[in-house]
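call fold(seq) -> tokens
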Amino acid sequence: MASNAKNLAEYLNNETTSATADIADSSITAAKLASNAVTTAKIADDGVTTAKIADDGVTSAKLDTNIAVAGTLGVTGATTLSSTLASGAITSTGAVQGTQFNVGGLKVLETSTFDYGNDTNKSVNTAYDYTHTLAAGTWIPFLKFYAAFFENHGNSNSTGVYYPFTYLGSSAGGEQYGYHYTVVPKWGNASNSYSDISHSQIPPFTLSSSSTIYVRWYCIEYGTSSNYWVRNGTNKIIFLRIG
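ret:
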């Protein structure tokens, strides 16, 4: 019999209690513990180590509602926010998507892209009109402007300039919402074409209701009449609705 174990005679002689020293090491098994017998008070601070927590054992319901992460928080899945995300900078290898973006106090509520350029041959001194619909609100247009030229004269360069422009208005040919233009000197010949690419941010404008935006692309030829075709290829306008 173990030296620190009570014998039967001691219990028969009414020694009914056992001191810690009377219990053999490792002699109390899990089966001898009643359910819910170990309370929080019996667990030492820092007594539950990481290894004692099952993988995926901590659910979101067990987490505090305000968690501060001093290091880097890596998220491999989608992150859904029901409120705002406060940050000095957001870095992502993928797309950052949302219905609202607040940049320095300026909220971007919506974007709308209008691709109206194409590579069909067009004529100078001719208006080409397009329409696009925007919702009510304040919009900032960002214009990607493109014009290509091909001439039909001989090897001698012609003289003059091309004057391509874009109008944004509330009616066909109007410029109530802004405009963009550029001046391109003639220098091509019958064996090559050339182009001009420029961009601009047009001042914001406000629509009181859903409205049609009229876009006019036009290229005026000044000087020697020598143009064979013009194109507006990759023209587009990105509209940002702000709040």
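The mean pLDDT is 84.
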